[in-house]
Amino acid sequence: MREIILEIISILVSSGIISFVFWVYTPESTVSAKVFLPIVIFCSVFLYGCIKYSFHLQNKLKKQTLLILPKLKAIQRQKLIFEPSELFHMNTVVSLFYKDIGEFFIGYGVVETILTDTKSLQVSVKEYISDDWTNEKVFEKKNNIVLKPSFPLEYLVSPQRQGEL
Fold it and tell me: What DSSP assignment string belongs to 86-135?
């Protein structure tokens, strides 16, 4: 974050210098080529630097954001195909969530394979929490379906201890 603040300050100082130059040399004043060419070169380099820096800053901010959960892309042979994500590996237990105003748990499954060509996740759904959710309904709402790594309670705790929690 400190780097970003320093870079913003340097842009403000550079733009202040350019503003000063244009304040001293108004449109009415006649300027010799010896003065005009360095000003044009400086302004061109500064403009190029600002444009390049804005793309650099945009990429830097994208990398600092939270990890984005993969969304549903397709359904093939009763398997859900999700966007690539480094959060998941083969045999990872996952939860399916419907994101609208809030986030609603709709089921869980397992990442069966990671497709080699696209790195997409192929998920086999083990169970939906209600009969309302089917693969067809999930595909209808595919823009709002996300995948999260998880581990259902029944796999974590033995059946004897589930009542204690």
Answer: TT--TT-EEEEEEESSSEEEEEEEEEEEE-TTT--EEEEEEEESSTT--H
